[in-house]
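Action item from last meeting closed. Structure (185 res):
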């Protein structure tokens, strides 16, 4: 299901439903500062490694894959009360349009969508292919020199070799206990 015309992402739609309408901040800097007060002052920006791990309830438990993403953090379009948005797209040419994540950040809490176009795959740093449709939650952790995050996710995670006929030849699992992390490259 695609978000309605007012929503740019699943995470933003969820934020609208849970928070109601809130006015925009006077400036992007004011909005981001409000979100970060009483929490980490480290902002996500740059190239990050998104690592996805199959949950303990999966046959592939213990298997994880990584994909490189360009990440940025900005004030939410729905105002400072709604939080900040941490978003990313794959760094590999030709793959930026098939996957995205948008996590709503309130202080150090993160939640949102980590997904891609159905039937598409991304090349992992190990040369495998991964496909995912996840709803994640986690925590931003201050780190030097960059922010990082860890969390859990529910949804589908699929793994295959390049050239395989199916996107799940090495594994498929729908679970509530997948893991994810974002670490600066």
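Sequence:
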């Amino acid at each position: 299901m695609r978000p309605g015309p007012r929503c740019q992402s699943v995470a933003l739609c969820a934020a609208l439903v849970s928070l109601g309408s809130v006015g925009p901040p006077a400036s992007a800097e004011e909005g981001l500062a409000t979100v970060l007060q009483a929490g980490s002052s480290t902002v996500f920006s740059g190239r990050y490694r998104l690592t996805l791990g199959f949950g303990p309830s999966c046959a592939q438990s213990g298997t994880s894959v990584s994909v490189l993403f360009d990440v940025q953090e900005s004030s939410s379009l729905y105002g400072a009360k709604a939080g900040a948005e941490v978003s990313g797209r794959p760094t590999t040419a030709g793959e930026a349009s098939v996957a995205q994540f948008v996590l709503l950040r309130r202080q150090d809490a993160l939640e949102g969508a980590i997904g891609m176009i159905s039937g598409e795959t991304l090349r992992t740093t190990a040369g495998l292919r991964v496909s995912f449709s996840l709803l994640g939650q986690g925590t931003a952790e201050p780190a030097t020199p960059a922010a990082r995050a860890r969390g859990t996710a529910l949804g589908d995670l699929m793994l295959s070799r390049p050239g395989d006929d199916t996107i799940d030849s090495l594994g498929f699992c729908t679970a509530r206990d997948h893991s994810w992390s974002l670490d600066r490259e």
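Note appended to the action item: Residues 10-17+24-184 form one domain.
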